[in-house]
C-alpha cells in the first residue's frame, strides 16, 4: 500500500510564513551584530592603515623636505634605491633577521604550547609567566635588556664573569648584536605565539588521539599523523604573522631603536629603522614614502606566494 503526502494546505502555508519571517529577522539581527563588532576595527584600519598607505604612495612621487615643501620628481625616488648601499645593507640585515627569528620563534613557541597543553597544578601561572613579556611595552623591554647587557657592569656580564665571558659586549660587537636582538625578540613574542598554538591544539579532537593510541600509535606517530596535519592552518598563520611582524612590526623598530639604534656599524639597522632615519633624521619624506611602498609590495607578494603554494596551510589536502 503506497501512501502519498498531501500538499500543504493554504492554512499550513500561512502558519509556516511567520516562522520563516522570524528566521530571517534573526539572521538579520545576527548579521547586524557581526557588522557592529567589526565596524570599529574596520574603521580604524581604514583611517590608520589604508589611508596612510594611499598617501604614502602619492608622496613617493615628490621630493618633500621637513618644512612641507613639495616638488614633483616622478620616479626619481625609486631610481635612487638602486644605488643606495645603506638600503641594501638594511634589507640584508632584515632578511637575516627574518630567516633566523621566524623559525626559532616558531619552534620555541610550539614547544611551549605542547608543554602547557595539559592541565596540572599551577598551569595558569605558568602560562601567564610565558605570556607576561608580551604585555609589557617594548620600550620597557629594551631598557631592561639594555641594563642586563651593559658592558662589564650588566647582570649578564657578572653571571658570565666566572667563565671568562664577563668582558663580552653583546650589543656592542657587530657579530653578536644581531643574534642578541633575535634572542630578545623570541623571548618577547614566544608567549603570544604559544597562545595561538595552544588555541589550535584545543581544536584537535581528543577522540582522534585516543583512537590512534588504541590502534597502537606511538606518541611521535600521534603527533605526526594526527596533531600536526590539523595544526597546519594555525602554523601558517603564525609564520605569516611573525614574518610581517619581523619586517614591519614593533620589534623591527622599537626594540632595535632602544637597544642599538641600528649599530654597531649598522649591524642591526633594519629596513624600517632606515625608513625612519630617512624621514625624520634626514627629512627625505618622499624617499621614505617610496621605500615604504616597496617594502609593502614585497610583503604582499611574499604573503600571496605563501598563500598560493600552501593554500593557507592546507598544501597536502585534495
From TrEMBL:
<dbReference type="Pfam" id="PF00528">
    <property type="entry name" value="BPD_transp_1"/>
</dbReference>
<feature type="compositionally biased region" description="Low complexity">
    <location>
        <begin position="1"/>
        <end position="10"/>
    </location>
</feature>
<feature type="transmembrane region" description="Helical">
    <location>
        <begin position="95"/>
        <end position="116"/>
    </location>
</feature>
<keyword id="KW-0472">Membrane</keyword>
<dbReference type="InterPro" id="IPR000515">
    <property type="entry name" value="MetI-like"/>
</dbReference>
<dbReference type="InterPro" id="IPR051393">
    <property type="entry name" value="ABC_transporter_permease"/>
</dbReference>
<keyword id="KW-0813">Transport</keyword>
<feature type="transmembrane region" description="Helical">
    <location>
        <begin position="32"/>
        <end position="62"/>
    </location>
</feature>
<protein>
    <submittedName>
        <fullName>Sugar ABC transporter permease</fullName>
    </submittedName>
</protein>
<dbReference type="GO" id="GO:0005886">
    <property type="term" value="C:plasma membrane"/>
</dbReference>
<feature type="transmembrane region" description="Helical">
    <location>
        <begin position="230"/>
        <end position="253"/>
    </location>
</feature>
<feature type="transmembrane region" description="Helical">
    <location>
        <begin position="287"/>
        <end position="309"/>
    </location>
</feature>
<feature type="domain" description="ABC transmembrane type-1">
    <location>
        <begin position="87"/>
        <end position="306"/>
    </location>
</feature>
<feature type="region of interest" description="Disordered">
    <location>
        <begin position="1"/>
        <end position="24"/>
    </location>
</feature>
<feature type="transmembrane region" description="Helical">
    <location>
        <begin position="128"/>
        <end position="148"/>
    </location>
</feature>
<comment type="similarity">
    <text>Belongs to the binding-protein-dependent transport system permease family.</text>
</comment>
<dbReference type="GO" id="GO:0055085">
    <property type="term" value="P:transmembrane transport"/>
</dbReference>
<feature type="transmembrane region" description="Helical">
    <location>
        <begin position="168"/>
        <end position="192"/>
    </location>
</feature>
<keyword id="KW-1133">Transmembrane helix</keyword>
<keyword id="KW-1003">Cell membrane</keyword>
<keyword id="KW-0812">Transmembrane</keyword>
<dbReference type="InterPro" id="IPR035906">
    <property type="entry name" value="MetI-like_sf"/>
</dbReference>
Amino acid at each position: 500500500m503506497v501512501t502519498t503526502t498531501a500538499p500543504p494546505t493554504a492554512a499550513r502555508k500561512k502558519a509556516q510564513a511567520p516562522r520563516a519571517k522570524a528566521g530571517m529577522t534573526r539572521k538579520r539581527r545576527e548579521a547586524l551584530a557581526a557588522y557592529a563588532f567589526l565596524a570599529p576595527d574596520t574603521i580604524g584600519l581604514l583611517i590608520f592603515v589604508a589611508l596612510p598607505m594611499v598617501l604614502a604612495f602619492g608622496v613617493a612621487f615628490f621630493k618633500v623636505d621637513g618644512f612641507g615643501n613639495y616638488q614633483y620628481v616622478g620616479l626619481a625616488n625609486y631610481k635612487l634605491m638602486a644605488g643606495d648601499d645603506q638600503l641594501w645593507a638594511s634589507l640584508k640585515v632584515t632578511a637575516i633577521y627574518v630567516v633566523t627569528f621566524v623559525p626559532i620563534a616558531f619552534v620555541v613557541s610550539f614547544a611551549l604550547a605542547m608543554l602547557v597543553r595539559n592541565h596540572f597544578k599551577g598551569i595558569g601561572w605558568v602560562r601567564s609567566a610565558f605570556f607576561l613579556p608580551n604585555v609589557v611595552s617594548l620600550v620597557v623591554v629594551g631598557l631592561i635588556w639594555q641594563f642586563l647587557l651593559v658592558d662589564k657592569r650588566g647582570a649578564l656580564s657578572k653571571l658570565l664573569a666566572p667563565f671568562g665571558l664577563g668582558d663580552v659586549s653583546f650589543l656592542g660587537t657587530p657579530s653578536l648584536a644581531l643574534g642578541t636582538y633575535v634572542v630578545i625578540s623570541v623571548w618577547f613574542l614566544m608567549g603570544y605565539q604559544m597562545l595561538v598554538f595552544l588555541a589550535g591544539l584545543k581544536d584537535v579532537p581528543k577522540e582522534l588521539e585516543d583512537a590512534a593510541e588504541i590502534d597502537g600509535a606511538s606518541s611521535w606517530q600521534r603527533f605526526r599523523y594526527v596533531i600536526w596535519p590539523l595544526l597546519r592552518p594555525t602554523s601558517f598563520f603564525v609564520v605569516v604573522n611573525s614574518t610581517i611582524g619581523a619586517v614591519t612590526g614593533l620589534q623591527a623598530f622599537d626594540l632595535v631603536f632602544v637597544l642599538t639604534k641600528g649599530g654597531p656599524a649598522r649591524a642591526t639597522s633594519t629596513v624600517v629603522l632606515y625608513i625612519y632615519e630617512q624621514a625624520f633624521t634626514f627629512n627625505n619624506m618622499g624617499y621614505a614614502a617610496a621605500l615604504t611602498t616597496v617594502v609593502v609590495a614585497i610583503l604582499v607578494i611574499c604573503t600571496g606566494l605563501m598563500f598560493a603554494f600552501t593554500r593557507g596551510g592546507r598544501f597536502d589536502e585534495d
